[in-house]
Amino acid sequence: MQLTRDNRVAILLHQGVRNRGGKTGLAYLRYGEAPVVAVIDADCPGESLRELTGIPCDAPIVDSVTEALAYHPDVLLIGLAPTGGKLPPAWQQEVKEAVEAGLSLVNGLHASMQGIVENLRPGQWIWDIRQEPPGLSVAKGKARSLPCQRILAVGTDMRVGKMSACLELQRAAHKQGLNSRFIATGQAGLMIAGEGIPLDAVRVDFAAGAVEAAVLEAGKDCDILFIEGQGSLLHPGSTAALPLMRGSQPTGLILVHKAGQESIHNCPDIFIPPLPEVVQLYETVVRAGGAFFPAKVKAIALNTSNLDEYRAQQEIDRVSEETGLPCYDVVRFGAEDLLKDALCEADAV
C-alpha cells in the first residue's frame, strides 16, 4: 500500500497542530508524497498551518471531517496517537463518517479499523499499518554479509527526530544520485515510504528478525540503507533500539538528540547522561563485546526546533565541541554535510 500524488489526503489532527503533538500527521505533512488538501483540528480552524508548524504547506485547517469533505479528499489519514492508542468516541465517529462518505483510510493506531463500515465501495480500502508481517523468524546476524552501508539512527529519547534525520539523509542522497533506500520502522515512516516494518506491532522475539528480513531484502540492490530508529536505550519503556541494532548490523550510527533536553520525556527523574557517555553506550552495545561489527557514531543530528536560529547554531557548535563529533540540524539547515560524515571512511563489512 502506498499513497501517491494521485491521492488527495485529509489529515485528522485534533489537538495536534498547535502543540505539535500530532507527530504522525505532521511528519506526513513535511515528507509525504500525496498532496494534503485539508487538516482537521477543531482547536485552530482557519489559522495558518505554515505559521503554526513551520512546515511549508498551506492546506486549510478545518474543524471537522464534514468541512474537510468540501476539499474533495479521497483518503483520510489518522495523524495522531492518543494515550492508550484509541480514538475518543467523537473522533471515531468522524472516521466512520469519512469512510461512509467513500474515503479510504490510513490508520496508524494499534486498534484495527477494519469493519468500521460493512461494505467498502469499489476501489476503497483501509490500511491498518500496525500489523505484524507474516513468516517472521529470529535474527541470525545475516545483515553483516551485505556489502552496502547501513546507517542507523539512534536517540537519547523517543520523539527526538530519528525518522526526520533519516528522511533528510535519504533526500540528500537522492539529490546526489546515490543508490540509497530508507527503511521505515514506525507508522509515520510507513505512511511516507509505503513499505517497511511496523516494529512496535512485532512480537519481541521476532523484532530483530523482522528488521533483518527488511534489511536483507532492501540491501540486495542498493549501496546505502538509512534505517529509521525507534525508542532509546535510555528510555525505561523502550524495547526497540536493541532489535534494530541486532537486525540491521549497522556500519554507522547517527545519534539524534533534542537541544537542551536533560531528562526523558514524561520521566523527569531519569536524566540523560552527557552526550559523550551516550555515544560510548551505543558504540559498546552495538559491538556486543566484539561479537558484532564495531560501528561508530559518525555524527550528532540535533533537533533545535525549540530554539531560534542564532541559539540553534550556538548549541550545534557547543554539542560538536562537547562530543568531538560533527553536529547538524538537518531539518533546519539541510543534510548534505551530515551525509558526507555518515558515509566518509566507510568501514569494511
Describe the structure.
The chain is an alpha/beta fold. It contains 12 helices and 14 strands. The protein has a 6-stranded parallel β-sheet, with helices on both faces. Strands 8-9-7-10-13-14 form a 6-stranded parallel β-sheet, sandwiched between helices. Helix 10 links the parallel strand 13 (about 295-305) and strand 14 (about 325-330). Helix 1 (about 25-30) packs parallel to helix 6 and helix 7 packs across helix 8 (about 240-250). The longest helix has 16 residues, at about 205-220.
List the helices and strands and how they pair.
Blueprint: E1 9-12, H1 23-31, E2 36-40, H2 49-53, E3 61-62, H3 65-68, E4 75-78, H4 89-100, E5 104-107, E6 126-128, E7 149-155, H5 162-175, E8 180-183, H6 187-193, H7 204-219, E9 224-227, H8 241-248, E10 252-258, E11 263-264, E12 267-271, H9 275-287, E13 296-303, H10 309-323, E14 327-328, H11 330-333, H12 336-343
Parallel strand pairs: 1-2, 1-4, 2-3, 4-5, 5-6, 7-9, 7-10, 8-9, 10-13, 13-14
Antiparallel strand pairs: 11-12
Helix pairs in contact: 1-6, 7-8
Rounded to the nearest angstrom, the radius of gyration is 20 Å
Distance between the termini: 33 Å
Name the average pLDDT.
94
* Main pleated sheet: 6 strands, parallel
Low-confidence stretches: none
Globally, the shape reads globular
Tell me the number of strands: 14
Largest sheet, order of strands side by side?
Answer: 3-2-1-4-5-6
| Beta-strand content bin | 15-25%
Percent range for helical residues?
Answer: 25-40%
- Pattern of helices and strands: EHEHEHEHEEEHEHHEHEEEHEHEHH
Count up the helices.
12
